[in-house]
Amino acid sequence: MTMTLRDIANHLILIAGTAFLVLPIALIFFSSTHSSLTLTTEGLQMNWGGRFLENYTRVMTLQAGFSDDITAAGMLKNSLIVGLGVAILTTVLSLLTAYVIVFFRFRAAGFVFWLVFVTLLFPLESRFIPTFAITSDLGLINSHVGIILPVLALALGTFFFRQYFLTIPKEFIEAATLDGAGPFRFLLDFIVPLSWSRAGAIFTIAFMFGWNQYLWPLMISNDESLYTLVRGIRLIGQASGPGMALIMISILPPFLLLLAFQRWFFRALVDKHGQH
Fold first, then answer.
1. How confident is the model at residue 2 (pLDDT cuts 50, 70, 90)?
2. Angle, nearest 10°, between helix axes 155-165 and 72-103?
């Protein structure tokens, strides 16, 4: 089969895009096998350094902080709690919000949706002071709940579900009504099964958002036992061999999650109803 000039150009663009995305990860991985002295004096490396076991062992056996509460296992546990907490609660909250806006058809539904959507214009950093005050008043300082709750309102998730719900045929609603299904049963028996691929996509996005949080956990907690992997990278030193090793470890869970949900994630982007 003869390849046309267009096919060749498409393949070259695909290869270039893949290399652009993979190169930084490869740079971090190879740098994680070098000594801190090499990285400090020569910069990041693209060759094997022979310090793989030493750097990764040092990270996995880390005990830092005033009371030695900062450990790799502890930081991984905290990151998973925050990432999964944000992902699960954001997905559920986004689905329920969109469900109410689309199917309950109250007069202010459009206004409520745009009120939710406009929050995209205000990043979390711009709300730090009032959010911190509310979190403090609720007694959630130095807690996983205090880290998770303020970042749950992901307007993108509500928008994503709403746009999908608007495409659901009216026959589904009529069939549910004839079957005697109330709002709760209609949600569980019709909407949730149809929304799995969308939920998987929002879950993945929200997990990465929660996993990569740095400034908010830094503000809301000074308890060393609540350190996440992202905070630990700065503690160890980004320009050190162990620091690069910790970066690689912090990349692994989101990467594995993306692999696990990739079918749902891409189906949600291209499939109109998410069911085939």
1. low
2. 40
Residue 180 lies in a domain: yes
Which residue range(s) make up the domain with 240? 73-270
Rounded Cα distance between 94 and 160, Å, is 9
pTM, two decimal places? 0.84
Q: What is the DSSP string of 127-158?
A: GHHHHHHHHHHTT-TTSHHHHHGGG---HHHH
Q: 79 near 233, Cβ under 8 Å?
A: no
| Residue 86 pLDDT | 93
Span 143-169, average pLDDT: 85
**What are the structure tokens assigned to 53, written together?**
């076991």
20 found inside a domain: no
Q: Measure the CA dihedral 16/21/26/29, to 10°.
A: 180
Task: List, for residues 192-217, the tens digit of each pLDDT value.
Answer: 888 888 888 889 889 998 998 888 88
Q: How many domains does the chain have?
A: 1
CATH of the domain at 237: 1.10.3720.10
Q: CB within 8 A of 205, min separation 6: which ones?
A: 154, 156, 157
Q: What six digits make up the tokens of 107?
A: 């007069």
